[in-house]
Write a structure and sequence with these properties.
Distance between the termini: 54 Å
Shape: elongated
Number of helices: 10
Strand order of the largest sheet: 5-4-3-2-6-7-12-8
Bound molecules: S-adenosylmethionine
Largest sheet: 8 strands, mixed
Number of strands: 18
Structural class: alpha+beta
């Protein structure tokens, strides 16, 4: 029970990771042509805190947006937390000193509010101070699943945000249900979720352009307990944490996704053993996919960083297609757990592998 509570607390904490503007810029610049004339909705985004709101407000004219909508959830960090992008002392349109009253902002125009010859953050701040083009309180709690939020979702063309990690499955399922275009940030492990993997197989979701390795820094609320390695407090006392395995997930197309992965290795049965509990060969590194193998191959999930849907077909994932090891080997000879693929160690025992994606080459050998 205690462990369960702890893991829940950890999950909720991960719901308050704030994306850095530079990471948002690095990704969005690949989709410029998708944004023209469109309504962008940031539905997990307190406009006073979210760099998604800030990015789209600052680039409203550059991208040629028709409208920008951002909604703030009731549990957005409370007043007093120094998370705001702006001086939060005297914000308009919201009751009392709190910033966490659920509200929405709708912008249809961004101009040089302070007439200094440039559209910059000061103008966006002035826009908010002047009540935005339209800043209104929400009736409900601002949950992305609420009727109010869904009404806005229906109106939107493209959704862009960093959704709460603990609700990622539901979040993606909702986008699919309403058939929306989206560009969202999350963790690479979400690939293995049934709901997400199904969309990957159907070519309805893929990884974005700018992040394929390493870690990224996210701002966290002041109250966030920072014991882990890889955190930092800046000169203003703002806290940041480094997160591994971050990826963008999208259904907006970009050119590089259609470039072939260059393959250089030749297939040999010795180098590419077969799994015990599924009929495919093991390819432990994406770069080593053999150029002359026609059958099914298991690759690490990071294959998706290189995935060109014109070059390969996705057949399944080890979690969903693997057969139970109990059908193949005696108990005690393999590490048990959720279904994964196994390889013989040669001494009567079996090695359990990390998640694998099953792929097959499209077309003839190169
Ligand atoms: C990971 S944070 C990201 C915030 C912001 N999008 C950014 O990247 O800076 C997720 C945000 O979603 C909000 N949130 C949590 N649960 C939500 C829900 N059910 N509906 C809408 N927003 C929610 C949190 O308050 C938090 O601000």
């Amino acid at each position: 029970m205690a462990a369960e509570l702890l893991s829940k607390a950890k999950k909720n904490k991960a719901d308050e990771f704030y994306t850095q503007l530079a990471d948002i810029e690095a990704e969005m610049r690949h989709y410029k042509e998708h944004f023209r004339g469109k309504v962008v909705f940031c539905n997990c985004d307190d406009p006073y805190e979210s760099n998604f709101f800030k990015y789209f407000a600052l680039n409203f004219n550059f991208l040629g947006l028709r409208k920008l909508i951002a909604t703030c959830y009731v549990n957005s960090p409370v007043a007093g937390e120094q998370l705001s992008l702006f001086d939060a002392a005297d914000l308009p349109g919201l009751p009392g000193p709190g910033r966490s009253s659920p509200h929405k902002i709708e912008i249809t125009e961004v101009s040089d509010e302070n007439a200094d010859g440039a559209i910059d953050l000061a103008d966006v701040e002035m826009l908010l101070r002047n009540g935005g083009n339209s800043l209104t309180l929400l009736e409900g709690d601002g949950d992305f699943r609420s009727a109010e939020s869904i009404r806005l979702l229906r109106e939107a063309d493209i959704v862009a945000t960093n959704p709460p990690f603990s609700l990622f499955r539901e979040y993606v399922a909702q986008l699919a249900e309403y058939d929306k275009k989206f560009i969202i940030i999350g963790n690479v492990n979400a690939i293995t979720y049934k709901e997400v993997f199904k969309l990957i197989e159907e070519n309805r979701i893929w990884l974005g352009k700018s992040i394929h390795s390493g870690d990224r820094e996210f701002r966290v609320p002041d109250s966030y307990p920072l014991q882990a390695a890889g955190y930092r407090v800046d000169e203003n006392g703002a806290k940041y944490i480094r997160v591994k395995g971050v990826r963008w997930f999208t259904n907006l197309d970009f050119d590089e996704r259609h470039e072939n992965l260059t393959l250089y290795k030749q297939y040999t049965p010795e180098e590419y053993p077969r799994y015990v509990n599924y009929d495919a060969i093991e390819v432990s590194k994406t770069a080593e996919i053999p150029y002359d193998y026609d059958g099914e191959m298991g690759v690490p999930i990071t294959f998706l960083d290189k995935y060109n849907p014109d070059q390969f077909e996705i057949i399944g994932s080890s979690r969903f297609v693997g057969k139970p090891m109990s059908e193949f080997a005696a108990k005690g000879t393999y590490v048990s757990g959720g279904i994964r693929f196994y390889l013989p160690e040669g001494d009567g025992t079996y090695r359990r592998l990390y998640d694998r994606i099953i792929i097959k080459r499209k077309g003839a050998a190169q």
